[in-house]
Amino acid sequence: MSGEKTEEPTQQKLKKAKQEGQIGKSQDLGAWVGMLAASIMLPRTLRQAMEHAQELMEKVPDTIIDPDPGKTLAILREALMSAAWAVLPLALTMMAVGVVAAAAQGGIRVATKLFIPKFNRLNPFSGIKRMLGPQALWEGFKALIKTTVLGTVLWFTMQDMIPVLMDAGRLPLVTLLGVVSDAAIRLIRAAAVAGIVMAAADYFVVRRRTKKQLRMSKEEVKQEHKNTEGDPLIKAQIRAKQMAMARNRQMADVPTADVVVVNPVHVAVALRYEPQKGAPRVVAKGKGPLAAKIRDIATENRIPMVQDIPLARALNANCEIGQEIPAEFYGAVAKVLAFVMSLKARGAAAGIHRNPNPTPAAA
User: Fold this and answer.
1) Partner residues linked to 281 by β-bridges
2) Which domain holds residue 303?
3) Across the strands, what pairs with 268?
4) Which residues make Cβ contacts (< 8 Å) with residue 80, sequence separation at least 6?
5) Mean pLDDT throughout 53-67?
6) Strand ranges (E), 23-154
7) Deepest of 72, 101, 218, 328, by most Cβ within 10 A of its Cβ?
8) Longest Cα–Cα distance in the chain
9) Which of 138, 183, 121 is nearest to 28 (CA)?
10) Residue 333 neighbours by CB under 8 Å, 6+ apart
11) What is the total count of domains within the chain?
12) Please, are residues 191 and 35 in contact by the beta-carbon 8 Å criterion?
């Protein structure tokens, strides 16, 4: 059936879907990649923060001995600046990762149409259908897998930490903090890697579902092609209008011609010769009804017409309107113009005249 959506979406349909925010992407991919990047940046951030904190703690005794409010505020300001500088690389990394992850899944675009309220989004039946449909089943399965994988990663990580925590009372505080922080970072990295794998699978599922939703019927593809390329009927009408305008323009130039070479009935070519502009030019030409129109205008404006069947056919076939005649027609046209000048000298140029020196070679 023509209504079945069996065709792949066209580029125009995909572009429109992007503008409306209908892009197949995983919301989790950017978050998990960001977490992995954070686990890489976090040790450096914590180390810088601890170094700055140690420097500030060394200034505290002097402040206690001499409790000057100005010094206290200076230390507080320095602490805030140190914390900001320590966290800044981590924040910039997270931001860059988020932008790259979004761009890799179809680009960054503000879908303003999503802000326009649509009543079909408030339809409770559509909401129930989404809750009980394949998408809801996939989301539930994905949540189950996510919980299982993260639980497994946490279990194996904690197994390595339990012996250390059992002997925590025998270890120095600095050593214990280092062991715990290393274990926490390993846990974050393992969880992030597992999350990225799950998010990649989710991305392909969502992409496939979105592409399926955007499928088109044969009739929709045909209609979009018609809208993009143009309706053949409309294009034909435009061409007809353009041809009519071109005919009107050349008809307006016929009164400026010096001679019209005719067939005498089927073909007419109007020529104008201006020595300062070069060779004679074709100002109008045509066959059938158009040739008849050219002859009528020439008669009304007393433009001389010369009957030369071979020359008329050759000029009509080989010359374009507004262009100079080719060099091979110079001699034949020169004879016609000389004949017309002799007619004008006698005052008998108007009307149709047979060329006394026809040139069969011009055919």
Assistant:
1) 272, 324
2) 255-362
3) 262, 286
4) none
5) 69
6) none
7) 101
8) 133
9) 138
10) 271, 280, 311, 315, 325
11) 2
12) yes
Structure tokens at 69: 């409010």
Do both 65 and 191 map to the same domain? yes
Residue 268 tokens, joined:
């007419």
316-337 per-position pLDDT tens digit:
888 888 889 988 888 889 999 9
* 154/95 same-domain check: yes
Q: Which of 110, 136, 90, 143 is nearest to 23 (CA)?
A: 110
Same domain, 202 and 260: no
Distances (CA, A) of 32 to 186, 192, 199: 14, 5, 8
- Distance, CA of 297 to CA of 253 (rounded, Å): 10
pTM, 2 dp: 0.41
d(CA 338, CA 342): 6
- C-alpha span between 149 and 245 (Å, rounded): 73
**How far are the Cα atoms of 67, 116, 126 from residue 122, in angstroms, in the given order?**
63, 13, 8
Tell me whether residue 195 is in a domain: yes
Q: Which residues contact 92 (CB under 8 A, 6 or more apart)?
A: none
- pLDDT single digits (tens) 91-108: 777 777 777 766 666 555
What lies within 8 Å, CB to CB, of 265 at 6+ separation is 291
